[in-house]
From TrEMBL:
Protein name: Isoprenylcysteine carboxylmethyltransferase family protein
GO BP term, example: methylation
Gene Ontology, cellular component aspect: membrane
GO MF, one annotated term: protein C-terminal S-isoprenylcysteine carboxyl O-methyltransferase activity
Source organism per UniProt: Phyllobacterium pellucidum
Keywords carried by this UniProt record: Membrane, Methyltransferase, Transferase, Transmembrane, Transmembrane helix
Length: 195
């Protein structure tokens, strides 16, 4: 088995694990009433683009090998680094869902009895779910020996992040007021201690 094949298998396992982690939280979230919905066409487009870059493009590549012209031979250290990054991403993803509990939503929504969560990964960054997506995208870039499929996740993540994060923070400020402003002052947006 080639190094490139090992990277592809690890990527597939990571995406399956991502879905397995999310599914029970998604099911539970449907049972909690939404009190405010700030979903827009831009929000849906951002989610679609992120899904395209983090799942469709790399999945198509893994299944078909297209676009072959963008292939390169990955190094073993890149596969190891990609696997570690993917594991870290899944850990942050799971912890973020666990901390949010009934407050979790895939879109910009405030749920009944919504509380500001500032524990677990939320003690370090305001958007650890996005941090996990960034880590998945970086893992994808290391694991897939193809410039298009490998980098599609970073492009998709970046578009989603920059389309949504300001709106999300505005919504949280409107809902939680000074409590969220204080939280913003003591945490970074995406990367602990940096940004």
């Amino acid at each position: 088995m080639s190094i490139a094949s090992i990277g592809e298998i690890i990527w597939v396992l990571g995406i399956v694990a991502w879905y397995v982690i999310r599914y029970p939280f998604e099911r539970r979230a449907r049972r909690v009433q939404v009190t405010r919905n700030a979903r827009t066409l831009t929000d849906r487009m951002g989610l679609g683009i992120a899904f395209f870059g983090l799942a469709i493009v790399p999945g198509f590549y893994v299944a078909t090998g297209i676009p072959k012209s963008a292939d390169y031979s990955p190094y073993a250290f890149a596969i190891v680094l990609g696997a570690i990054t993917m594991l870290l991403a899944l850990w942050v993803f799971r912890r973020s869902h666990k901390e949010l509990g009934r407050n979790w939503s895939i879109t910009l929504e405030i749920r009944e009895k919504h509380k500001l969560v500032s524990s677990g990964p939320y003690a370090f960054v305001r958007h650890p779910m996005y941090t996990s997506f960034l880590l998945i995208a970086l893992g994808q870039a290391f694991l897939l020996g193809n410039w298009v499929a490998g980098l599609a996740g970073l492009v998709g993540f970046s578009i989603l992040f920059f389309l949504r994060v300001t709106k999300e923070e505005r919504m949280m400020l409107e809902n939680f007021g000074p409590e969220y402003r204080d939280y913003m002052e003591r945490t970074k947006r995406l990367i602990p201690y940096l940004y």
